[in-house]
Design goal:
- By secondary structure, the protein is an alpha/beta fold.
- The protein is 20% helix and 19% strand.
- The chain has a single domain (2-271), classed as 4-Layer Sandwich (Purple Acid Phosphatase, chain A, domain 2), CATH 3.60.21.
- The strands form three sheets. A six-stranded mixed β-sheet has the order 5-6-9-10-12-11, covered by helices on one side. A five-stranded mixed β-sheet has the order 4-3-2-1-13.
- Helix 1 (41-51) runs parallel beside helix 2.
- Bound molecules: fe (ii) ion (FE2) (2 copies).
Length: 272
């Protein structure tokens, strides 16, 4: 199965670029968009349906999908817009295509990467737009780091359940936030501020190593884990899981210019 993978297209900050179409489109079986396509996930669904009406599309919301709206409400609207179509909006939900199970969630983070989750939550709450521009509880409350943390634990529980299920075919996880610490060998890594790293990444490498049956069935890690959010390009293996990211990032600001992540490949396809 050929997977056309991208994330962080950020249509709200993109001028003069569109999804490759016609002959410029790669050969693929399933398009996967790992979040930050556009604020308001229902608009993301519409954009995808207009461009890819003829193949399954898997769409996971990023943090930016919830900007200017209620995080749960926008996902519900997106799922309603996608119902009965070829677009699958996944939030703690799986879909089977052929013999491959695709499990998706935004994921958020546990804020624990630097060893002090409390401090990381205070810093993130103070400095990140995620905790200024998103509403929750039917618009009544501001979305705060503790809401993100709760959503993270719920998503990790969901992913573990999927990994414990007996399965014939492959398991592909799609999350927006990163499931591993910085993997780049380059000094400075992906260039994100390390103080904010705990709001971008969690260390979930324990879920990438097979574990024997503890009464819930053996844990069989995902064959492939696709993520976004860090605006980098990644293709590496941790334990039993191949990790892939192909994020565009912001830009181009004007037609003919390039985007944030110089390594982004709009036609990136891998075979599983
Ligand atoms: Fe992004
Ligand atoms: Fe993001």
């Amino acid at each position: 199965m050929r997977l056309w993978i991208m994330s962080d297209v950020h249509l709200e900050l993109t001028r003069g670029w569109d999804l490759p179409s016609g002959d410029a489109r790669p050969n693929f079986d399933v398009l996967i968009v790992a979040g930050d396509l556009i604020p308001r996930a229902e608009r993301g669904v519409k954009w995808l349906l207009e461009r890819v009406p003829d193949r399954p599309v898997i769409y996971v919301g990023g943090n930016h999908e919830a900007y200017g709206t209620d995080i749960q409400r926008t996902l519900e609207k997106a799922m309603a817009a996608a119902a009965g179509t070829n677009v699958h909006v996944l939030e703690n939900k799986s879909v089977q295509i052929g013999d491959v199970t695709f499990s998706g969630c935004t994921l958020w983070t546990d804020f624990a990467l630097n060893g002090d989750a409390h401090r990381a939550m205070v810093v993130a709450g103070d400095r990140m737009n995620d905790f200024k521009k998103i509403r929750t509880a039917a618009y009544r409350q501001r979305f705060l780091p503790h809401h993100a943390l709760t959503r993270h634990f719920k998503s990790v529980a969901f992913l573990k359940t999927e990994m414990h299920k007996a399965r014939e075919g492959k398991l592909v996880i799609i999350s927006h936030h990163a499931p591993v610490p910085e993997m780049s060998d380059e000094p400075g890594g992906s260039g994100n501020d390390p103080t904010l790293d705990p709001a971008f990444r969690s260390d979930l490498r324990r879920l990438m190593v097979p574990a024997p049956d503890d009464g819930r069935g053996a844990l069989r890690p995902a064959d492939l884990w696709i993520f976004g959010h860090t605006h980098e390009s990644v293709d590496t293996t941790v334990g039993a899981t191949r990790l892939v990211s192909n994020a565009k990032g912001y830009g181009p600001w004007n037609a003919g210019e390039t985007w944030d992540n110089a390594n982004f490949n709009p036609n990136y396809v891998i075979e599983i």
